[in-house]
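Budget justification aside, the reviewers requested a transparent look at the raw inputs and outputs of the sequence design task funded under Objective 1. We therefore reproduce one unedited record. The lines immediately below are the structure tokens for a 251-residue chain.
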């Protein structure tokens, strides 16, 4: 399970509490990684660290960088292992993060540096090339519009799956460009995107089935998680924005 970014709540006391609870909850559910979007850094780097302290999973971004050196502030990618069904070989999955380019974005970063965003097209290629030979599957978490993701996979080979989020965009049918499958599952955690990969000869992906699950009453609640959520909600500080949900990216 992964998140494509912009999962942070509103910049107030209630939003901060929701963000911290969301990070804890994602850890309980076993998330492997989360991308960093511009909203996640709306209050700067130090606030990001405070809100994500103790996270059970890593955060990735290839194109959120220090302005002074151009170096990534977060890990540009991570490698995780995924269980294969029926006792098959574990798969190594490389997860790269990318956020939408914004030339006006500038936030306080570590050691007095500023954070800026480079164009993902210019940045992701070397990391895709670097991780490609180390893994079985390359996933790009994309906090950017689907048309931008399409442009990247047309020019940067080696991306198997794009898990993206931008506004309310979500995938309703197979969306494949070059050798990449695109999966967008909306925002605010209302839908869960699922991809099932089928491998052919030589370990290459032969086909991908994707599903979008609308997380409504059709899926019964897991009682221990429901109890935990209810406990979090009961302790939320009220800041005049009651009912405003933390905006979670596609998963």
């Amino acid at each position: 399970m992964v998140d494509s970014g912009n999962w942070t709540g509103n910049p107030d006391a209630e939003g901060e509490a929701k963000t911290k609870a969301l990070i804890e909850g994602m850890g309980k559910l076993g998330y492997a990684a989360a991308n960093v979007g511009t909203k996640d850094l709306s209050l700067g780097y130090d606030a990001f660290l405070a809100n994500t302290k103790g996270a059970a999973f890593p955060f990735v971004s290839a194109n959120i960088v220090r302005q002074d050196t151009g170096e990534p502030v977060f890990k540009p990618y991570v490698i995780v292992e995924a269980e294969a069904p029926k006792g098959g070989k574990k798969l190594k999955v490389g997860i790269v993060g990318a956020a939408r380019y914004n030339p006006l974005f500038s936030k306080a970063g570590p050691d007095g540096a500023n954070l800026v965003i480079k164009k993902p097209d210019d940045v992701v290629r070397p990391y895709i090339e670097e991780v490609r030979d180390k893994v079985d599957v390359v996933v790009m978490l994309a906090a950017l519009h689907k048309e931008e993701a399409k442009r990247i996979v047309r020019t940067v080979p080696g991306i198997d799956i794009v898990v993206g989020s931008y506004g309310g965009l979500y995938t309703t049918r197979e969306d494949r460009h070059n050798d990449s499958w695109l999966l967008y599952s909306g925002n605010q955690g209302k839908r869960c995107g699922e991809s099932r990969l089928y491998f052919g000869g030589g370990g290459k992906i032969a086909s991908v089935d994707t599903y979008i699950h609308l997380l409504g009453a059709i899926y019964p609640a897991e009682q221990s998680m429901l109890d935990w959520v209810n406990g979090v909600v009961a302790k939320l500080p009220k800041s005049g924005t009651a009912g405003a949900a933390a905006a979670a990216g596609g998963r």
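The helical segments are 13-29, 45-52, 120-132, 146-155, 223-234. The chain has one domain: 2-234. Computational costs for records of this kind are itemized in the attached budget.
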